[in-house]
């Protein structure tokens, strides 16, 4: 099994973020799950990869050529794929992986998570998408997603596709037991309007 982790190219200001990235990398390796990520050495990205490698895991990085220097491509990975664009990076990470977990991060992390989630909503894949809500970092985003649901811009089953947990074991268990909603429901619900 392979899990893709999206996370900050920065480390954030609180030590909890770095700790969580290390915990996740270690837990994946110990569970025999390969890590797919953006291939960088910087920020939480570097931390999750380093921890997985230190715990004996396989780590596959996917990095666009123009970011090899800026994000310092990791030189100690099991595999490093250099691709020609962000689009190729995201498509390759998605194809290689059986599920997606976002740690705290910035706009790059949000964009990557939201893209795979929307692909899931459209039925392009049936893979779990999860938010590791370390120290409540994503509380306001989660509140906004609930607001979007209350206001009629998201259906509850599709809001519920995004798995959320602040605790790692329970997040990994949700990822493992995830069942995608049936796409047909989405089509029906559209025609009900
Ligand atoms: P950030 O969360 O902004 O620190 O970025 C995390 C990762 O997302 C970095 O590897 C960025 O290169 C990447 N990233 C930034 N913008 C995008 C984008 N539009 N599409 C895909 N990846 C991106």
From TrEMBL:
The organism's superkingdom is given as Bacteria
**Would the keyword Hydrolase be found if you checked this record's keyword annotation?**
yes
- Which EC numbers characterise this protein's activity in its record? 3.2.2.n1
Q: Which InterPro entries does UniProt cross-reference here? A: LOG, LOG_fam
Query: Entry's Gene3D superfamilies?
Result: 3.40.50.450
Question: Mind listing the UniProt keywords for this protein, alphabetically?
Answer: Cytokinin biosynthesis, Hydrolase
Reaction(s) catalysed by this chain, per the record, are: AMP + H2O = D-ribose 5-phosphate + adenine
The UniProt entry, under SUPFAM superfamilies, shows: MCP/YpsA-like
Q: Which family does it belong to?
A: Belongs to the LOG family.
This protein's name = Cytokinin riboside 5'-monophosphate phosphoribohydrolase
């Amino acid at each position: 099994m392979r899990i893709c982790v999206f996370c900050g190219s920065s480390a954030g200001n609180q030590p909890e973020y770095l700790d969580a990235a290390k915990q996740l990398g270690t837990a994946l390796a110990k569970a025999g799950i390969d890590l797919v990520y953006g291939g960088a050495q910087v920020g939480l990205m570097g931390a999750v990869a380093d921890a997985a490698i230190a715990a004996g895991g396989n780590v596959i990085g996917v990095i666009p050529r123009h970011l090899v220097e800026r994000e310092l491509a990791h030189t100690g990975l099991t595999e490093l794929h250099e691709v020609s664009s962000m689009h190729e990076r995201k498509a390759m990470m998605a194809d290689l992986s059986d599920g997606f977990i976002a740690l705290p991060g910035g706009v790059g992390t949000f964009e990557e998570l939201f893209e795979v989630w929307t692909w899931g909503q459209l039925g392009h894949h049936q893979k779990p998408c999860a938010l590791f809500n370390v120290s409540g970092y994503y509380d306001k985003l989660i509140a906004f997603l609930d607001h979007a649901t209350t206001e009629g811009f998201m259906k509850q089953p599709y809001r519920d596709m995004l798995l959320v947990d602040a605790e790692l074991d329970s997040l990994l268990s949700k990822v493992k037991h995830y069942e995608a909603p049936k796409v047909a429901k989405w089509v029906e619900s559209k025609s009900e309007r």
